[in-house]
Amino acid sequence: MKKNMKHMTKTVSSEEEGARLDRCLRLWIPKLPQGLIEKAARKGLLKVNDEKAKPSLRVKEGQAVSFPKSFVNLDLDVPHKKSLALTHADRKWLKDLILFQNADIIVLNKPAGIAVQSGTKQSKSLDAMMKAYDDTLKPRLVHRLDQDTSGILVFALSLPMARWLTKAFKERNVHKTYWAIVCGVPQKKEGLISLSLSKKPEGEKVRVDTEDGLSAITYYRTIESLGNRIAWLELTPKTGRTHQLRVHCAEGLKTPILGDGKYGGKDAFPLGRTPLHLHARALTLPLPTGESITFEAPLSKDIQETFKELGFQDG
Questions:
Q1: What is the pLDDT of residues 126-171, one digit of tens each?
Q2: pLDDT digits over 49-94, tens only?
Q3: Do 133 and 232 have their domain in common?
Q4: Are 222 and 186 in contact (CB under 8 A)?
Q5: Residues 180 and 253 in one domain
Q6: Is residue 315 assigned to a domain?
Q7: Residues 190 and 278 in one domain
Q8: Same domain, residue pair 211 and 263
Q9: Contact at 8 Å (CB) between 209 and 197?
């Protein structure tokens, strides 16, 4: 980074190519307010290759971005959040979760019970732990799983791949397959569930809302059943709404997922107290090359034990 009395210049890297100029600046200076970027642009103090630039400009590798030196001074004045301190056991635990890793992505088999992102009720999350796992990596979440759901979770390790996969998930170009053990057996062996959903005004629950809800579509297939008491379903969501599969099973099929007291109440525990039996089994990602890659996550220990108890033969 070059600097003079009032301005600094930094060169755009291959990882930052294609990002908006304001986004690029925040990658370099994370605490930089958008308002200051806009103000600098209006005053002509924001330049790319010595030409005045707008915050919305898409930058290219090798371009020289010039901005006020005060941007960096501001960032130094803001206390940065300390990274999570990981123990040796934490690092071994994370390493054991990794199913695949290359220069662009890292794929985990997420355990049930840990949040993907930190929040008011969770100080420890996979996102925070992965950021502290290896200083040479910059993992970026491109999708989510519920805290109580296990299975495939993908992080992008480069900004271009993060943008590519985020768009792929948003445009529903990612094929997702879940396995669930449900209480009861669907009337039809396979079919489509189309129930619009919205969040309740209070709490974290989601409800069926045919008037104002967002469209939610899930394909299902019964793989195996035990009388009329328990079934093993394959679920393929075509949309990605919060708690979609849980509500669609409980309300659409009238077969709540085993262990899902939030949406199934006492009917979700015919085998006694048990964790949620919902597992993100497989994920097929489209790649920028035009090819695709598929990942599968082994079942968690809890779900494996239930399969054994019920006599289901998992793949």
A1: 999 998 998 888 899 999 999 999 999 999 998 889 989 999 998 9
A2: 999 999 999 998 889 999 998 887 765 444 445 567 888 999 999 9
A3: no
A4: yes
A5: yes
A6: no
A7: yes
A8: yes
A9: yes
Q: CATH number of the domain that 195 lies in?
A: 3.30.2350.10
* Token pair of 37 as six digits: 């970027």
For the record, the structure tokens of 53 come out as: 């630039």
Please tell me the distance from the alpha carbon of residue 51 to that of residue 54, in angstroms, as a whole number: 10
Q: Which residues of 118-128 are buried (b: 16+ CB within 10 A; e: fewer)?
A: eeeeeeebbbb
Range of the structural domain that residue 139 is part of: 88-170
Distance CA 212, CA 215 (A): 9
The CA radius of gyration of the chain, in Å to the nearest whole number, is 23
Task: Report which residue type is found at 174.
Answer: V
| CATH number of the domain encompassing residue 71 | 3.10.290.10
Q: What is the DSSP letter of 83?
A: P
Retrieve residue 203's tokens: 């709490």
Residues catalogued as catalytic = 146
CA dist 55 and 32 (Å) reads 13
Residues 6+ apart with CB under 8 A from 77: none
Same domain (yes/no): 164, 183: no
